[in-house]
Amino acid sequence: MSTSGMVGVGVVALSRSRKRYFDAVGTRHVVSGRKEMEGEEMRSDVGSGGRRGCEYLGSENPATSGKTYIPTGWLHEFGSYGLANVQGTPVTSDTMSSIASNSKLFLAYSVRLLINNSTLREEYGKELKWTTKARDVFEEAWKLMDGDMDRGTSIQDILSHRTGMPRHDFSTATGQDGVAQMISTMRYLRPSAEFRQTFQYNNLMYEALSYLPRLLLNQSFESYINQHIFQPLNMSSSTYSIKVAEGREAFAHGFQWHMRDFSRGINGTRRATVPYFFRPGEETMWAGAGGILLSARDLATWVSMLLNDGRHPYTNKTIVPTSVVEHAATGVTVSNGKAPYPELSPKVYGAGQWRYSYRGHELIEHGGTAPGFITQVARFPHDNLGLIILSNDANGLWLTEAVKWRLVDDILFEFQEMSTTNPLRPRYEEIWGSHLSASQTHTPRPDSPTPPSAPLEVLASGTYNHPAYGVLQPCLVPPQHYSLTSHSDHLHSSKETHAYHVHAHCEALLTSPTAQYIFSQTNLSIPTLLIPFKRTFATHLRLQHFTRNIFNISVLWGNAELRRAEGYSYSGDLHMYAGKAEKQHILPSPLFPAGNGGDEGNMLIGLDENFEVERVERVLSAPHFSYLSINIIMTSYDREPYCGGDLLMSEAYAHVFWR
User: Fold this and answer.
1) In the chain, fewer beta carbons within 10 Å around the N or the C end?
2) Where is the Beta-lactamase-related domain (predicted)?
3) 14 pLDDT exceeds 90?
């Protein structure tokens, strides 16, 4: 089925004061029990062509026969639009998707539940506090490069993103050693700010805290959350398991933009990421920071519990202590010291929660971004209102934000929209235009670039190792792939084939399906190196010479080899890009002849996310060793329009040593 139409969007509005809010959205359909009923379409300026239903949930009245829901109960209204997968299955309130970094609040609550665990104190002699130092918990496994960070980082510092450590997301591999190994390698990651001086979003630190149940109770983090949150709230669809999720028909496909390259004006093709980008067995590495898979229905129960101060929304039983809910939502670090627009306030971050105000109403929220999935979960605590917007489109951030603010204006301000005085559409257009402009703005390579200080074959023949970022073994793309090769570009290049297959994997790598996709979208008149880089959010690094010892690097993710290994078919579609390639010397791959038909599953992303690398030679005195250092500096650009979501691109600082 074609996916050129609208992919999935799920919207949930929930409240206990139904008349004040939901009359503004549309006709209510109150039902008993948990069976969703179809209702009228939501307002056309919010969405159309979907399903909506209401659930009117409250306390059971034991004095009557059957189940009667009293009028002070919760009202959940679901709006479901578009497609959940490539089979064309419509989105419903039971469709499962990734909530990405909205998983962080579950992690924060798990820490507090451990703090409240009297058994740890009485039987194990262990005690946690918000102020407990990480080094006292993780002991010899914990060490950071900066002394102040190493000694001073507390659990609260980690939860509030004020350690001084940038993201370093690409330092994490999906190996068997898991979170314990990740913690032990953080000592090799360079900070980019002073300790406690600024807000820097960091997934790795959250992952470190997900190891606490294993460390203190010998229980996995996933089972701990299932025991203390999922089961007590009857969140029956919620799981961290990829195998479990993929075994359910309700699991959505995340759509991304294959071969997108804004730097060349190519939008790419929207495709479903099949299979899911995590594979069974890899979940633990990112469980705490962004691993939950669940339905909108389960998420509605979760947000109702938050609005009910940590008590079960239907039984009033305490699930999370009220003090814990308040603590996580209380600002510790200032993330945005200045309001970006007049109707907003500055933003503060507590633990897995941003807090700020909108038109005088206080708002607590968090966003989430995973490959092909965007989520936004917000609540107005003083208005008893919660909003959940889920999208399975990598571009869904724009939609989730627009829907969120439109619903807020409709419900809280009775259609007195901000757009009447301060239009939101021009803002989005300006932000998107700035993003496109930045993507297409780059310093052109000199007409006569200066060759690097050493032959490219020397760079390609090395093995570069970093304790956290792993081993890099570059493969130099052979000259027969180049067109219009200049003498200066290849001043040091040998024409002998063996020079390009120094590493055993190079021949297979350079002829692999993903490499062919990369070459089809690469200006191969420029000397190019390709490096396998198996990480959670990356599979390859592409280095292209700029001048002297400076290279441009792209961090790429492709799934062609994974799809082949798991039995998915593929065929060529690279001819689709040949027209764009002609003026830029981008050659169609011989592996995929033109007219061979397109494959709707293979994916390549990251072509226009470019960074700068400088090769720095350093020889250090040591017995039997000399080191060649490559200093890699990756800096992110802001892809966050007007929301509290998180991004995959990261700042990363690494020294990669060849020895």
Assistant:
1) N
2) 72-396
3) no
**Residues spanned by the domain of 539:** 456-658
Handedness of CA 227, 233, 234, 238 (dihedral sign): negative
| 158 pLDDT more than 60 | yes
d(CA 635, CA 166): 10
Q: Per-residue b/e over 618-627, b at no fewer than 16 CB within 10 Å? A: eeeeeeeeee
480 shares a domain with 586: yes
Chain-centroid distance, C-alpha 648: 5
DSSP codes, 4-49: -S-B-EEEEEEES-HHHHGGGTS-----STT-----PPPPTTT--S
pLDDT tens track for 299-340? 999 999 999 999 999 899 999 999 999 999 999 999 999 999
Whether residue 488 sits in one domain with residue 424? no
Query: What is the helix (H) or strand (E) element at residue 225, kind and residue range?
Result: helix 221-225
Give the pLDDT of residue 119: 76
Question: Quick one: 404 and 472 in the same domain?
Answer: no
Which whole-number Å values give the CA distances from 442 to 149, 445, 632, in the listed order?
A: 36, 9, 19
Q: How many CB atoms lie within 10 A of CB 431?
A: 17
Which tokens is 531 given?
A: 């490096």
> Is 489 found in the same domain as 397?
no
408 and 552 assigned to the same domain = no
Q: HSE of 550 in the Cβ direction (CA atoms, 13 Å)?
A: 11
How many whole angstroms from its chain centre is CA 184? Answer: 23
Side chain identity, residue 608: D
Measured in Å, how far apart are the chain's first and last C-alpha atoms? 51
388's tokens: 């959940």
Helix (H) or strand (E) holding 74: strand 74-81
